[in-house]
Amino acid sequence: MSRPESLAPMISAEATPGSVRSPKTAELVARTLRRMVVEGQLKDGDFLPHEADLIAHFGVSRPTLREAVRVLESERLVEVRRGSRTGAKVRVPGPEIVARPAALLLALSGTTLADVMTARTSIEPPAAKLLAEHGTAEAHEELRRLVAEVPAAWEAGRLAAASAHLHRRMVELSGNATLGIIAGMLHEIGERHTAAAISGASTDNNIAKSEYTKLHKSYVRLLDLVEARKGDAAEAHWRRHMEAASAAMLRGHEKTRVRDIMD
Q1: Residue-wise pLDDT tens for the chain (263 aa)?
Q2: What domains does the chain contain, in order, with CATH numbers?
Q3: DSSP-derived secondary structure letter, 12
Q4: Which of 29, 71, 155, 243 is deepest in the core (most CB within 10 A)?
C-alpha cells in the first residue's frame, strides 16, 4: 500500500495547474485521478498522494480537492476513512459495482427471469468457445477446480451457489472483459433463480441424485472440450446445456420477475 513518490511523471500535461481552471475544477481533478487508476498508475490498495501535494500540483483549494475525492468515493474508486490520517485508499471495483444497480433497474422495468435466462444463453456459449480456444492454462485449471468442487457442494446443500459461481467464472475466464462484466452483473440474479428452482423441486434445498448426476456430467463434458481446445464443440455443448437448464429452471417460474426473487 504505497504512495507515489512524485506526481510529475504520473499526471499528464492536461492536468497541469494552468489547464485545470474551469467552473468544474473538482470534476477535472477527479477525472485525472480516475485516469491514473484506470491506467494502473495507482493500483488497488495504494493511497492517493498527500493532500498538500495534490493541492500544490493542481493549484486548487482544499475544499475543491476534497470535492474531487468525494466524486471518486461516490464511484467507489477510493475509500476514505473519516478522521483517519492515512487519506484516501484506492479500491479497484469489480462487477459488483454495477450488479446491484443493474438488478434494481431490471426489477424496476418488470424484467422476467425468462428474459434473464435468454440473455445468459446468448452470452455463455460463445464464452465457452473463447475459453476453449484462447483460455490460458491457468484459466483451464481453475475451471477444473470449480467442476471438482461441485460434488461436495451438492452434498452440503450448496449446489445453487457452486453452480452459479461456475457459470460466472467460466465467462470471466474466457478472457472477454465485456462478457465477464455482464456475467458478474447477472450473477446474483442467477444464483437466486437457481436456488428458487432447486427449492421448488426438492424439500431439502437440493435436487434429486439423477438430476445432479446429469448436471455434473455436463460440467465434466464442458471441461473436457475446453481442455481439448475444441471451441465449436464446447460452444454447441454449452448452448444445449443452457437451453435445457433454462427449460428446467423456468418450470413454475414462467412469469416470475426479477423483483420477485430480489430483496
Answers
A1: 666 655 655 555 444 545 544 448 999 999 999 999 889 899 999 999 888 999 999 999 999 999 999 999 988 899 987 765 567 999 887 777 778 888 889 999 999 999 999 999 999 999 999 999 999 999 999 999 999 999 999 999 999 999 999 999 999 999 999 999 999 999 989 999 998 888 765 544 456 788 889 999 999 999 999 999 999 999 999 999 999 999 999 998 889 999 998 86
A2: 13-90 (1.10.10.10), 96-261 (1.20.120.530)
A3: -
A4: 29
Q: How many CA atoms lie within 13 A of 235 on its CB side?
A: 11
Grid cell at residue 102: 443493474
Cβ(45)–Cβ(90) below 8 Å: yes
CB neighbour list of residue 175: distance below 8 Å, 6 or more residues apart: 130, 131, 134, 135, 136, 139
